[in-house]
Amino acid sequence: MGNEEMNQKTKHMLQAPNVNSHQKAAVAKGVKAIGKKKDEEEGLDTAEGEEWMQGKTLVKPPDQLDLTEAELNEEITRVLKASNPNAPQNVVRYSFKEGCYKPIVFVDQMAIHFELEGNLVHKESDEGRRLMAKQAEVDDGGGVERPDNVAIKAAKREQKLTNQFNFNERASQTLNNTPRDISCQTEPPPRANFSATANQWEIYDFYVEELQRREKSKEKHEGQFLNKEEDKSKKKMIQAETQNDDISQLAKVVKIIERMVNQNIFDDVAQDFMYFEDASDEFRGEKGTLLPLWTFQYDKAKSLSVTALCWNHKYNDLFAVGLGSHEFTQQGGGMLLFYTLKNPSYPEFIFNTASGVMCLDIHEHLSYLVAVGLYDGCVAVYNLKKKTDQPIYNSRASSGKHTSAVMQVKWQKDDLDSNHNFISVSADGRLVSWTLVKHELVFTEIIKLPVIDTIPDDLKDVIPTVGTSLDFHKQKDYSFLVGTEHGKIHKGSKYYSSKFLEKYDAHFMNVTRVKWNPFHPDVFISCGWDWMVKIWDQTMKSPVFTFELKTSVTDVAWAPYSSTVFAAVTTDGKVHVFDLNINKYEALCQQKVVSKKTKLFNIEFNPVHPIIIVGDDRGHVTSLKLSPNLRKKPKEKKGQDLPKGPEVEIAKMEQLLSSMR
Amino acid sequence: GADDTEEKTQTIDPKHIFPPQHTDMPEEMRVETMELCVTACEKFATNNESAAKMIKESMDKKFGSSWHVVIGEGFGFEITHEVKNLLYMFFGGGLAVCVWKCS
User: Which segments show compositional bias classed as Basic and acidic residues (chain B) (predicted)?
Assistant: First the structure.
């Protein structure tokens, strides 16, 4: 039993093989001692056990089970299976085909307990060869194993050689753009200089100013307890006013200075204008001369020709010039300019018109109203008082406007409704009266010029008689004269709208101007392209006086100071002045006033000063002073009124003529 | 004299509404710069240099490099500045501030 007890102990004891034999011996001795104590009879067994035990050392864990022998001898069967106890047995997968979860039967049973990746490479594999090749390169320096190297290199080349049939090497080079150097310099930001001083007094001054400004604005705010809008509008007005004041004040000053400068420049001319009287006239007998004074020209009007001139009745130094073109083929824009003798270098007023101006007239009393007739048949009225450069009335769109160029316009007395009105004659053969009613021009047809006999009947409505000139009698203002392109002059009356009162066969060609004598009620003058100037008595069918002036006469005008003096201009640039009182057959003065090849188109006498203005086809207006011989008042009739003087004269002339007949 | 100074001191309070003595800056820039100057001068009331430094550095950050700032009570100057980058204003009744950009 002791042995068995001993065996029990020894069997269940752990072995400790690495323990020294010395220790083993010690342990064995320990055991031996125990054994000795227990049973000396079991010396042999114990010796055997000792030997066996000396090979293995056993350590008993403290929590080892103590089993009985029966339990020890019990046979426990152990079954080894190939299945992995840890593998899941109830794996379920969703089957899309059947739409439900299905258990998977075969589950992977392999359990990996340990894994170690090795770093051995097969010699024949690609990687092995590469490694060997690398090694060979490294060993090359040492010259070890050359045949191996060669083999390796051959292997390398073998790898690089590609099949010549399937592969082709092709190279190409694209065009390289030539490189260019471009440099750029940006502009540096602009700089400015500034300088100031910072002192106590500067600061103080500035603050005081600012305070004053603030107070002013506060007053303005307090003074106006109105709507905000009104405030704003008033502020704007105040601003505008102050602005206007500044500029308008400046404008006034500038204007005065401009006139002063002009006067300085043209000082000698101004002196001549006022005081020069040609002393040599005494020695010339009857003849007189014209002294050129100022020339008025405007740059932008260079291509235009003067078509109309008119003096202003209120301001005797202001005159209007209408610019356009007489040529049918050269029609462009037109201009209306106002010059004053005080400033010959620049016009006072400039108006641009859409088409050439053919005629103009300034109202007798309201000298700011100007009526203008244009080449395209429109008539327009300008108000000089207004600052705009657009006409206040324009017949552009209205019906009844002339279909052809307007040749003459004349203001009339205000009608019964005290509306201003004027009458125009145009190349379409109609005389139309225009009334300025509020904002529009109302037209009234007065009369149509009679058709010429030579035109066949069926064309009589189509081909109009071109009216070229119009003049109203000074005293009997219902009576008027119209000159036509065919050389006839018709006398009409505003009260007769169907027929003309009288017809005069005046000229063979175009009648360019017809004008009543300012003094004598029966006398009028006409001129035309047929080189003639004729003076008529309206009661007689044939002219009283006839003058031939070697070229086409474009304009004629009576002098305002004498009933027997008149002047005519011709296309050769000459001005002819006549005084019938002195010489019935010849001009007192025939003077060329413009350069060659310039035609003169208009002439007007100044109502007060002894000067005339002539307009030419270059857009220039020349002013000339009449020498004393041309301005002679009838000497014998000093005491009597002028109109009567010439009447007596004409009566004398009539007697002369009747004696000539 | 006395009345005027009183008036001056009274109206110095709304100083940020005062328009600058001379400037050619655009509206927004001007307002910002003026406020910055007022802040700086209030903060460094005793030290002009620090105030100027603060203004200059903020201006450099905000509006680009090379700003120059002068603060003082009595000086004259003549400067070249980039157009639309000058502000010359007064502050607090006795201080003048001139700010300009020039690289």
Answer: 7-16
* Dist. CA B69–CA B37, nearest whole Å: 10
Check pLDDT > 80 for residue A376.
yes
- Are the C-beta atoms of A563 and A520 separated by less than 8 Å? yes
- What pLDDT score was predicted for residue A420? 83
Long-range CB contacts for residues A124-132, cutoff 8 Å, separation at least 24: A129/A155
Band (B8; pLDDT cuts 50, 70, 90): very low
Kindly give the pairing relationship between strand A611-616 and strand A523-528.
unpaired
Inter-CA distances, A274 with A267, A287, A559, Å: 11, 21, 19
- pTM greater than 0.80 (yes/no): no
CA–CA gap between residue A29 and residue A23 (Å, rounded): 9
ipTM: 0.75
Question: Could you say which of B7, B78, B100 has the minimum Cβ distance to residue A211?
Answer: B7
CA angle B48, B54, B59 (to 5 degrees): 125
- Interior CA angle at A468 toward A463 and A469, to 5°? 145
Taking CA–CA distances from A206, the nearest residue in chain B reads B21
Backbone φ and ψ of A266, nearest 5°: -100, 40
State whether residue A202 sits within 8 Å of chain B by CB: yes
Indicate which of B10, B81, B86 best probes the interface with A, i.e. most A CBs within 10 Å of its own CB.
Answer: B81
Of A573, A613, A576, the residue nearest A593 (C-alpha): A573
Nearest CB partner across the interface for A191, out of B8, B73, B81: B81
> In the structure encoding, which two tokens stand for residue A420, read together?
């201003």
Dist CA A352 CA A390 (whole Å):
8
| Closest-CA residue of chain A to B74 | A199
Measured over the CA atoms of residue A80, residue A83, residue A87 and residue A90, the dihedral's sign is negative
Report the C-alpha gap between A225 and A194 in whole angstroms. 42
Decide if pLDDT at A365 tops 90.
no
DSSP A343: B
Do A464 and A481 touch, CB atoms closer than 8 A? no
A13-25 pLDDT, tens per residue?
444 444 444 444 4
Residue in A195, A203, A210 nearest the CB of B79? A195
Query: Is A192's CB within 8 Å of B83's CB?
Result: yes
Q: Does B21 touch chain A (CB under 8 A)?
A: yes
Q: pLDDT digit string (tens) for B39-51? A: 998 899 888 899 9
Nearest to B90 by CA among A208, A214, A216: A208
B63 touching A, CB under 8 A?
no
Distance between CA atoms of residues A513 and A544, nearest Å: 17
**Across the interface, do B22 and A202 touch by the CB < 8 Å criterion?**
no
Query: What confidence tens digit (pLDDT) does each residue in A39-73 have?
Result: 444 444 444 555 555 556 677 777 877 777 877 78
A612: its two tokens: 């005339």
| A658/B contact by beta carbon, under 8 A | no
Partner B contacted by A52 (CB < 8 A): no
Name the minimum distance, in Å, from the CA of A239 to any CA of chain B.
20
Contact A210 B86 (CB under 8 A): no
Shortest distance between the Cα of A220 and any Cα of chain B, in A, equals: 19
Name A200's Cβ contacts closer than 8 Å, sequence gap at least 6.
Answer: B73, B74, B94
What pLDDT is stored for residue B79 in this prediction?
92
3-state secondary structure of A89: coil
* Inter-chain CB proximity A207 and B90 less than 8 Å: yes
Contact A189/B at CB under 8 A: yes
Contact residues for A340 (Cβ-Cβ < 8 A; gap 6+): A315, A317, A318, A319, A348
Percent of chain A scored above 70 by pLDDT? 77
> How far is the C-alpha of A345 from the C-alpha of A348, rounded, in Å?
10
